[in-house]
Amino acid sequence: MTSNDARNERETPDPATALRPRLPSPLQEVVDDRFTRYGVRLLLKRDDLIHPDLVGNKWRKLAPNLRAAAARPLLTFGGAYSNHLRATAAAGRLLGLETIGVVRGEELADRPLNPSLARCSADGMRLHFIDRSMYRHKAERETLTGILRAADAEEAYVVPEGGSNSLAVRGCRALGEELRGRADVVAVACGTGGTLAGLAAGLAPGQRALGIPVLKGGFLTAEVTALQTRAFGARRGTWSLDDRFHFGGYARTTPELEAFATDFASRHGLPVERLYVAKLLYGLVTLTREGAFPRGTTVAAVITGRPFP
Ligand SMILES: Cc1ncc(COP(=O)(O)O)c(C=O)c1O
C-alpha cells in the first residue's frame, strides 16, 4: 500500500458536512446616528457567526485548504497571538487532522505558552518555534525545506501565514457573492489582503470593496493584486485601500480606539474584535464623517472575527 492509498483510507470528513457552517452568514442592519446623519446605511456582514471555532474569514480560507490537505498533516505559520493558528488547530481537532504550527520567535519556546498558543496546543497542534530571521524567509524554498525537516513534517500540506493562498482567495469569493445586490460598498479589515482579494472578485459590477489595512507599510495594493493574479489570472473587481487606520501597526492601539470599540460594542451588542474589526469600524465612521459616501449609500462592514477572551 502506498502512502497515498493509506491517506485515502483515512479520508478527512468534508468540512462543510462535518462542521455545519452557518452560510450565508447573517447580514444585519444597525442604526447608528454617525451614519444615518449622513444618509448612509450600515450593514454588518456577520462572518463571525459562521462557526464558533472557525470564525469569520478563517472558515472561508481554511475550508478549501482542509479539503486539499486530503488527510495529510497541515502545517502553517503565525505569530504568538495568531487567529489563524488557533482556527487551524481547532479545525484539526474537529476533523481529526494533524496540525503543526510554526511560530515566530524562538525565544517563546522556553516560556509558558500564552493563552492563544495554549489553546492551539490543547487542540492538538504541535508547535515549532523558529527565530524571526528564519520566519521572514519562510516562503523561500530552501528555508521552507529546512523548516519542514526540523519540524519533522516533510509530508505536510503547507498553508502560508494568514492562510492566504489561492484556494483561500477563491474561498473568500463566496463572501462577495453573498453580498451581491445587498450593498454599494463592502469594507473589510486587511492583514495579508487575501480576504479582500476574494471578496472583490465575488462582488457584482457596480459594487466596490474597500480594504482597511491594520499593518503599516502601504505594501498591500501590490500584494492584493498579486493574490488576485495567482487566484484568478488577473486583477478582479473594483477595490481600493485606505491606509490611514492602522493606529501605528499590527496589534497597536490607542485609548481613543479602545474607547471607540467599547462604545460600539455597547451601542450595538457586537463583540468587537480589536486587532482588525475595531480599526475597520473606526475607519468607516471617519470616512462617513468626511463625506466619502454619497447620501443613499449602503455600506456593509465585514465582521471577520470575534475577540479572543
Ligand atoms: C479577525 C480578522 N480579520 C481580518 C483579517 C485579515 O485577513 P487577511 O489576512 O485575509 O487580509 C484577519 C487575519 O487573518 C483576522 O484574523
Automatic annotation (TrEMBL):
First and last residue of the signal peptide: none
Annotated protein name in UniProt: Pyridoxal-phosphate dependent enzyme
Cofactor: pyridoxal 5'-phosphate
Organism of provenance: Streptomyces cynarae
Gene3D superfamilies registered for this protein in UniProt: 3.40.50.1100
Keywords: Pyridoxal phosphate
Pfam families, sorted: PALP
Family: Belongs to the ACC deaminase/D-cysteine desulfhydrase family.
Biased composition (Basic and acidic residues): 1-13
Disordered, as annotated region: 1-23
Segments forming domain Tryptophan synthase beta chain-like PALP: 36-305
SUPFAM superfamilies: Tryptophan synthase beta subunit-like PLP-dependent enzymes
